[in-house]
Known about the structure:
Mean pLDDT: 93
Structural class: alpha/beta
InterPro entries: Asp_de-COase-like_dom_sf (IPR009010), MopB_CT_YdeP (IPR037951), MoPterin_dinucl-bd_dom (IPR006657), Mopterin_OxRdtase (IPR006656), Mopterin_OxRdtse_a_bac (IPR010046), Prok_molybdopt-oxidoreductase (IPR050123), YdeP_MopB (IPR041953)
Low-confidence stretches: 62-66, 773-779
Shape: globular
Bound molecules: ligand MGD, molybdenum atom
Number of helices: 31
CATH architecture of the domain at 188-263 and 270-404: 3-Layer(aba) Sandwich
Domain Molybdopterin oxidoreductase: 111-490
Family: Belongs to the prokaryotic molybdopterin-containing oxidoreductase family.
Radius of gyration: 25 Å
Cofactor: [4Fe-4S] cluster; Mo-bis(molybdopterin guanine dinucleotide)
Distance between the termini: 27 Å
Oligomer: single chain
CATH class of the domain at 188-263 and 270-404: Alpha Beta
CATH topology of the domain at 188-263 and 270-404: Dimethylsulfoxide Reductase, domain 2
Protein name: FdhF/YdeP family oxidoreductase
Amino acid sequence: MGRKDVPGIGEYGGPAGGWGALQAVAKALRGEMNAHSTTILLQVNQPTGFDCPGCAWPDPRHGSSFEFCENGAKAVSWEATNKRVTPEFFAQHSVSELWQRDDFNLEFEGRLTHPMVYDAATDHYVPIAWDDAFARIGAALRSLPDPDMAEFYASGRASNEAAFLYQLFAREYGTNNFPDCSNMCHEATSVGLPESIGVGKGTVSLEDFDHCDAIFSFGHNPGTNHPRMLATLRAAALRHAPIVVFNPLKERSLERFKSPQSPVEMTVGKAVPIATHYYQVRIGGDSAVVKGMMKALLAADARQVAQGGPSLLDRDFIRDHTSGFATLVADLDNTSWDEIERVSGLPRADIEMAADVYANAKRVIICYGMGITQHRHGTSNVQQLANLLLLGGHIGREGAGICPLRGHSNVQGDRTVGITEIPSQGFLDSLERVFGIKAPRHHGHGAVAALEAMRDGRSKALVCLGGNLPVAMPDPQACFDAIRGLDLCVHIATKLNRSHLLVGKKAGQLSFILPCLGRTERDVQATGPQSVTVEDSMSMVHSSHGTLPPASEHLRSEPAIVAGIAKATLPQSKVDWDGLVADYSRIRDKIEQVFPDFDHYNERVAQPRGFRLESPAMRREWRTRTGKANFLVSDSRRERPLARPGEDDPLVLATIRSHDQYNTTIYGKNDRYRGVTGRRDVIFVHEDDLAARGLEHGDMVDVEAVAECDHPDQPRILRNLVAVAFDIARGSAAAYYPEANGLVALSNYDERSGTPSYKSIPIVLRRAASGGQDRAVTD
Ligand SMILES: Nc1nc2c(c(=O)[nH]1)N[C@H]1C(S)=C(S)[C@@H](COP(=O)(O)OP(=O)(O)OC[C@H]3O[C@@H](n4cnc5c(=O)[nH]c(N)nc54)[C@H](O)[C@@H]3O)O[C@H]1N2
Ligand SMILES: Nc1nc2c(c(=O)[nH]1)N[C@H]1C(S)=C(S)[C@@H](COP(=O)(O)OP(=O)(O)OC[C@H]3O[C@@H](n4cnc5c(=O)[nH]c(N)nc54)[C@H](O)[C@@H]3O)O[C@H]1N2
Ligand SMILES: [Mo]
């Protein structure tokens, strides 16, 4: 088919991985690191090296060789860059000037080297001594009339040690306000799974993938976001385990993969097909698909049993271990195939085929990512996946289970050690017992509630342990204004980003940038070199030792910075901050005292691959209200992304990651596997959906959000995107995050978990009002 030539838009014909991936690594290294640093890539995820700061996919326990990962290499080289953002840099560039740069350019300037404070008189950040910064931050926090007027954000790169001290400090100070990147990510998992199976984490181990008979993959893009998973999927594909994918976009890595670690694949040129079945579900249609699969399964089971055959369900498991089966059956009976086909966008025959694969597998694993959680009904989506697994008894035995693909490399660990706005009373009791502090008992703010409080002037201070909160959140304008209105902003960070530029200019408003060590760097404290610990997606806890020299002699570690702020804020603190920071194994001892699961923490983490935090669900112990695993149903009529009245047939937009980004960190403007080069101003739409609107591939379009909470008199419009005809489900569209965040309202979230609906945005497309001038493409 001949299609219009559009600069930067092509088609990628190859598999995921392959030589393209090797070339990309070479480029990342050439651009960022010197030769010496390059050798440290060999230490990533090794017993004596550091944990990859990329994704949370586990390391193969028996693997000894460096497991290749293009995007891990980008993450490492981005942190280990030779470029520096020094006080001289800030003297040369005012904050207003830096604001004009794009996100890529801000971080590209390199690593932050000095603690800085904003000077409103000159509009520049100026250097400040660490102790002065701590003293001023402490005074500002102490002067707030109520500790609940401060927000303590954490992004999931912080180690267990840093995160534990952080929550200890904020709780001794007096608040449970812990907005966290998890609130934007897997909160639907953290809320949904405990109700279903009594634990808010996955239940599988990496070894389970060696034993499973089928893998179902919902809404995640491993080639970009957890590339080391491709080795696992490839191994399953090679032993002919069916892999069933539900994704509105054809993602190349889920179609086929050529392993850069396989000389045969690389030279002879054969890629391994990954998905055996690829179903392009409509955005927001997963719950309908899963209901359809369960409906088909029940029908097939009834037929088989009527003919005297064995049940397709695990009847013993359902009887002994679950509650709510009858309610589930009734809900499925009430759900028509018409409804299922309409909402999912898939024909009944496809869903029945998927159910057939499920029925024929003795051991099933379901993997899922943001395509499931970031919806208005994310929690209910997660619970439907759990329902499906429970029907076959696929939780708590070898080769089976649920596998949420977590985001940041230690986001799961941060939660485990107490970063949560809804702490359990038992945990707070332990914290009080171990430290002699008084912990606040009322719930705090998650990310949406924190932004609302800052917007409305109820919160006046924000401390960020990493991340880029207002850029990652919906409705940047509202969030930017909220941060600019604060009395105090503290950013503990490795690299400059837009959040740091949201400064208040009135007398008394304070903004600080406190530069910290990254995970790749040596961390030496009073008793000598330190290591930290992290927990991956599969609950493996292991240690990480940085080896590179720090980017600047002025950097401090995250635990040391948290302790510095804590001491200055709480002169009467009950905690021996200096003692803990002097030797991180003492922090681990305290973690062990607070959380019994961490028994013999220091000893066990010293083993080469660390240890696993077992959860009760893995043993089929159900810590739920009923004491059983629960089949949970929800009102499916409420489960679709809703457009405002009068908007007929909107498309539903998902915001997604390109291959060259890590969340708000943009490494480059290519999205290789989707055929995009040198630009990010694109929207992927089905060719027929374009034609139905009088548009075609390459046209410039404006995108208006029309969710039920959006008002025509305050339109949310993203202008001048290039419409790219793409292999995507009808009725669905996709554009890049964070550029498209202005299309999501702060009030547009899953009511049960607070997860923003980044992937269910009803939109209308129009030809660009500007007349469609194309913009230059840069690489
Ligand atoms: N290199 C790199 N690695 C990363 C990150 C990164 O930005 N870059 N981010 C990290 C973080 S914090 C996270 S949370 C993870 C994110 O990892 P993913 O969950 O893979 O993230 P996304 O790119 O947001 O999109 C997920 C996929 O969901 C699909 N999708 C969208 N809507 C739907 C839907 O309604 N149903 C279904 N079934 N699919 C849908 C999209 O087509 C896309 O393939 O990755 C982590 N790892
Ligand atoms: N529209 C839309 N929005 C989304 C999403 C989406 O899919 N669509 N995804 C959401 C998800 S899943 C997530 S997790 C959030 C991500 O939200 P965040 O975690 O807040 O954002 P990041 O972009 O990962 O943060 C990048 C910054 O972290 C700092 N940093 C990097 N390494 C370190 C370190 O080791 N220590 C410290 N202290 N700082 C460090 C650097 O300064 C860098 O600029 O975004 C969410 N927003
Ligand atoms: Mo995430």
